[in-house]
Amino acid sequence: MKVIERFLNYIKFDTQSKADVDEYPSTKKQLVLLNHLKDELDNLGILNSIDKYGYLIARIPSNIDKEAPKLALVAHVDTSPDASGENVKARIIDNYNGKEIVLNEEHNIILSPSIFPSLKNNIGQDIVVTDGTTLLGADDKLGVAEIMTIAEYIVNTPEYKHGELVLLFTPDEEVGNGTKYIDIKKVDADFGYTLDGGTVGEVAYENFNAASAKVIIKGKSVHPGSAKNVMLHSVNVAYEFDRLLPDNKRPQNTEDYEGFNHLISINGSVEKSQLTYIIRNHNRGLFEDQKEELINSCEAINKKYGDQTCILEIQDQYFNMNEILVNHRHIVNTAIESIKETNVEPIIEPIRGGTDGARLTYLGLPCPNLGTGGYNFHGPYEYASIQEMNIAVEIVKKIITKTSQL
Ligand SMILES: [Zn+2]
Question: What are the pLDDT digits (tens) for 111-132?
């Protein structure tokens, strides 16, 4: 089956995940697609198992004589809570001409190259778009479709040589929990790749170091009529705290490798305010410095208004996978070489966010991220290129071959 056929099939499943729920996976409907994939693997004769969390792990044994690294290919089945993934009506535009695409005439929803310049790279290709009312699901059903296509190819092509392969499909990536209950020993691979990126040719192996910070500011509430020199308004102090942080590290002033402290929310009354931040930087040292800036700001507030006026809690969330991948450069290099040999220009950009690959890397499965041929993730402007998805499959086949020769 072609990648596109699989893809169009998988996006029929609504697999939207949900933030802040206790159950795992966060929505039962993700299990429907996971079990469907299990059936497909069974039909292909590929050994697999799914656990109570929904982690679907399949293994394809090596067909070569020598010892080779065990390679994992990883994709997530859920789609973002940011937009509906129900009743996706995909449309294929053959030989895209570079002009505006009316996704939905009734609601005047237009996919335009002036707003999304990446479309210019897709001229002459066949692209898959939405009807403007849902997301497409390329993130990450394109990754799923590409991995399944490769699995089928391997089953049908005994002369194609490869080491042991592990296919891993996960739920709840979009709500930050894609690896929450994963048993990495059960995955049992030496390294892997997530197929969860954008443009084909993309290799991402650097992501943010990430922490969250909760700042509580305590005020002193008295009757406003007799407040002079007594009232301490926690909201004012909260603003003061925020202003102590450097302006050049606010997200709206940063790009590329520049880290930021992002004030997500501020709630308060006279008595008590709470500020919530996320702290992000690719560089671990600078990341620690940014945490230090928050600690210093809190101390300055306490010095001025009294002990315990400011209480700060910082919690690490994830780290830059490059810190580990730097010692396993061959994984990145294999991807880059495979991309070049497929006549695609490698695109290497730091991720200004996180990835499941980062968590897997820190769990012991080094795992850079590869482009799949999808664009504009998480919303109705999402689209995918059929030529690029086919190329993505060819790239991964080369990666498998190269890995088997390591
Ligand atoms: Zn994704």
Answer: 999 999 999 999 999 999 999 9
- Lowest mean pLDDT: which of 171-185, 347-361, 363-377? 347-361
Strands (E), 52-129: 56-60, 71-76, 91-93, 101-104, 109-111, 127-129
Provide the 8-state DSSP code for 234: H
CA of 198 from ligand 1 middle (Å) equals 9
**Cα 373 to ligand 1 centroid, rounded to whole Å:** 12
Tell me the CA–centroid distance for residue 228 and ligand 1, in Å: 54
CA–centroid distance, 377 to ligand 1, in Å, is 8
> 3-206+321-404 belongs to which homologous superfamily?
Zn peptidases (3.40.630.10)
- pLDDT band at residue 349, thresholds of 50, 70 and 90? confident
Answer positive or negative: Cα dihedral of 170, 322, 258, 199: negative
Q: What pTM was computed for the model?
A: 0.89
Tokens, residue 11: 């996006």
Would you say domain 209-318 falls under CATH 3.30.70.360? Answer: yes
Up-side HSE of residue 250: CA atoms within 13 Å toward CB?
Answer: 10
Q: Which residues belong to the active site?
A: 78, 173
pLDDT one-digit tens code per residue, 95-113 = 999 999 999 999 999 999 9
Instruction: Please state, in angstroms and rounded to a whole number, the distance separating the CA atoms of residues 170 and 47.
Output: 17
Q: How far apart are CA 379 and CA 94, in angstroms?
A: 22
Domain with CATH 3.30.70.360 in the chain: 209-318
Beta-carbon count within 10 A of 283 CB: 18
State the Cα–Cα distance between residues 260 and 78, nearest whole angstrom: 28
Q: How far is the CA of 138 from the centre of ligand 1 (A)?
A: 8
